[in-house]
Amino acid sequence: MEVAVYSKDGSIVGKRELSPSIFEQKVNESLISEVIRAYMANARRGTASTKKRGEVRGGGRKPWRQKHTGRARAGSTRSPIWKGGGVTFGPKPRDYGINISKKKKRLALLSSLSLKAKESKVLIIDEIAIEHPKTKAFHDMLKNFGFKESAKLLFSLEKIDGSVYKSGRNIPGVSFTTGSDLNALAVLSSGTIVFSSKGLDSLEKRLG
User: Fold this and answer.
1) Do 55 and 40 share a structural domain?
2) How far, in Å, CA of 177 to CA of 164, rounded?
3) Cα 13 from chain centroid?
4) Which CATH number characterizes residue 127's domain?
5) pLDDT tens track for 133-191
6) CB–CB of 27/33 below 8 Å?
7) Residue pair 123/16 in contact by the 8 Å Cβ criterion
8) From start to end residue, where is composition biased (Basic residues) (predicted)?
9) Ramachandran angles phi, psi of 111, nearest 5°
């Protein structure tokens, strides 16, 4: 698959062949779903915690006698049906992590990249460089390619350049990664993947 290579101003400066072994693989939707679920589960902190009726402070004394009050029976003010009482079947700290093999992660990444290529959501900019951190400069570059304000863009570079990152980090929908860190979740969470030429080189070197 051959795609155009652009300069920052939006003009075409050449063409490049996307590696078939990376961008023309069969899309395995069930594998993608499995791996994405694992990535999201592994990102959960799992620190939510509530107290059961036996863990809430107080409530050790019966609030009123059992009979002859005209009120319903009550044994503790920390019953789950009382305000300030314990929580029934509430969450406790737990590990939500799901183990996933490197092979599955790799295949899911190949599938997601192939899907983006099939949808023409892969853009290559020869060199993404900004001399001084300036959001306007980055915003102007995006306008050269006709991206809307709501566009979700993932920039995959060889390495995260400080000036480029600082220029784009405040723009909603823009995120950054490197060819060595790119994963299926990042790919599918974006609308368009924007590679620098060297960023694509590093991805091809990693995935072969």
Assistant:
1) no
2) 12
3) 32
4) 3.40.1370.10
5) 999 999 999 999 999 888 999 999 999 989 999 999 999 999 999 999 999 999 999 99
6) no
7) no
8) 59-71
9) -65, -45
Last residue of a domain, one of 24, 58, 90: 90
Confidence band, pLDDT 50/70/90 cuts, at residue 117? very high
Residues 141 and 122: their CA atoms lie apart, in Å, by 16
pLDDT of res. 131: 87
Give one DSSP letter per residue of the chain, joined into a string. -EEEEE-TTS-EEEEEEPPHHHHS----HHHHHHHHHHHHHHT---------TTTSS---S-SS-SSSSSSPP-S-TTSTTSTT---TT------------HHHHHHHHHHHHHHHHHTT-EEEES----SS--HHHHHHHHHHTT--TT--EEEEESS--HHHHHHHTTSTTEEEEETTT--HHHHHHSSEEEEEHHHHHHHHHHH-
At residue 132, φ and ψ (nearest 5 deg) are: -125, 140
CA distance linking residue 161 with residue 153, whole number of Å: 17
Residues 144 and 189 in one domain: yes
* Helix 197-207 and helix 102-118, axial crossing angle in degrees, nearest 10: 140
Domain containing residue 73: 50-90
Q: Round to whole Å and give the CA distance between 96 and 42.
A: 6
| Cα 133 to chain centroid, rounded | 25
